[in-house]
Amino acid sequence: AGGALTDPETGAFTLNNLGIAFSGIYAQGLVTSLELSVISAVVPGVLGLAIAYAVQTSGSAGLRRVVSTASGVFANFGGVPLAFLFIATLGSSGLAVSWLKAIGLDPYDHGFSLYTFTGIAIVYLYFQIPLMVLVITPALEGLRPAWREAADNLGASSWQYWRLVGGPVLAPSFIGSILLLFGGAFSAYATTQALTSGSLAITPIQIGSFLNGNVLSGQENVGKALGLGMVLIIAVVMVFYALLQRRASRWLQ
């Protein structure tokens, strides 16, 4: 934080670094990062919850073990290897794109590109959905069958059960998981950098540019100001996450 508030030439206290970091292309980079993070949290959050619920209610212990193991592997597969996987699959000369071209359906002729905002969001789904499955499964396991049986005995419909019992109990864990996914997407760097070579302006890539020495004279500490902004945002997210987890633990112990 000290460097973010320091003039690189005189060493004096200044807010100029923060002013630059939250204006112009850097402000747009922050907005893009937030938009990408929200999309990469909400969509995988909903899909991951649906998958986890389907597996949890399947009654198959074997399926649960397979999904849990696979989710653990996929959730930790990222960075340059993940970028290469998608380039080989959905790149302009990728395998899947070549198959689509062979039947006259070239997605790149219809505005799609793996190297844009939309493409990066799709790539993030690969590890965000399995991560959601992992973090929401314990909450689903904490929904006691006795609650559902009691609701059924009292004549409650499935909708009433989820609206009045299951939903309120599961909501803190679900929202907390969304915040966790948001934090992961917001701080992700390697995959996006490998796919776009820095052409997509998001805050982690802009910070990486400063670390690589691409700095204008007098703006040496702007990268630190950008980092401070990211730390503050993640800190707020984690505070809300901790509060939600504490609330969820009251019911799911």
Output the CATH homologous superfamily. Answer: MetI-like
State the CATH architecture: Orthogonal Bundle
| Count of helical stretches | 11
* CATH domain class: Mainly Alpha
Query: Strand pairing plus helix content: what structural class?
Result: mainly alpha
- Beta-strand content estimate: under 5%
Described by strand count, sense and barrel closure, the largest sheet is:
none
Q: Please trace the helix and strand order, writing H or E for each element.
A: HHHHHHHHHHH
For the record, give the distance between the C-alpha atoms at the N and C termini, rounded to a whole number: 39 Å
**Low-confidence spans:** none
